[in-house]
Amino acid sequence: MICISAIAVGCMASVCAASVEFDVKASPAELAMGDTLTVDVSLTFPEGDTLYDIAEVPVPTVNGFVMLFTSNSKERVYSEGFYRYVMSTRYLLEAVDTGRTAVPVMTVDYVDRRTGMLTSLASQRVAVHVGGRQTSSLSTIWIVVVPTVIGIATLLSIVMLRRRRVRLDEALKTAASQDPSEALRRSLSRSEVVLAHGRTAEAQSILYESLKQYLKDAHGLCAGVGDAVQESGQLHPVIPTALLDSYQSLEGWNNDLKYGGTARSAKELTELCGRLRNCLEQ
User: Fold this and answer.
1) Would you say residue 90 has pLDDT above 90?
2) How far apart are CA 174 and CA 172, in angstroms?
3) I need a surface site. Which of 3, 44, 51, 244 has the fewest CB within 10 A?
C-alpha cells in the first residue's frame, strides 16, 4: 500500500494537535488486467471540520482505469491523546488497459475560520503498474487436469470398444464353424442377453453381423442384400423374404449407428429377434 500525506501546521498548539492532514492511499501498486485498484482519499482535522471552510476534494482520474464504486465516510478517532475528525472517500477502479500509469497529484484548499488563513495541500504522484492477466494456480491446474482426464476417458472408451469388437469377432468366428442356423440362434440369444443389460448399440451390431454371416454361410451371399436381388429386380427365390427385409432394416440401422451414433430401441431390436427366430423355425 502506498500512502502520500500532506500536512499543514496551524497555530501555536502542538503539531500533532493542530495539523490538518490530506492523505492519498492506493493499493495495490502492481496489478493485472481486470483487477481492482483502491484509492482512499482522506482529510483529517484536529478539532472538527466546523472550524474550516473546505474546497471540494477532486476525484482521482487514472489512465487505463474506469470508476466502479465510490463511498464516503466520516468518523471521530482518538490518537496520541487527541481527538481527530476524519473525512474519507474510497474509490474502486478497474484496470482496463496494461502499462505504467499513476494516481495523479491531487490538491485541496481550506480556510481556517479562526485566522482566515488559506492553506493548499497537495499529494504526490502514486505510480501504478498494470500487467497482463495472470493465470492463478487453480486455473493452471484445471487447464492441465481437465484435458488429461478427458484424454484418459477417451482412451478407455476406445480400449473398451476394441475389446467389445474383439469379443464380437470371436463370437462370429465361433458361429461360422457351426451350422449357420444354429450359429444365428446363438447370436440371437446373445443379443437378447445384451439387450437385457440395456446395451442396444452392441445388440444391434451383433444382429447385423450375425445375419450377414448367416446369409453368406447358408446362401452364399458375400455382399448381403445386393446379391440377393437379381437383374430383373426380383428377390432371390431361395431366401425367405422376411430374412431379406430384416437384413435391409439392419443395414440401414447400422449406417445410422455408424455415421450418426444412434441405435434402435430395445423394443424394435427385440421384435426383430423374434422375426428372425420365426424365420429359422419355418
Assistant:
1) yes
2) 5
3) 3
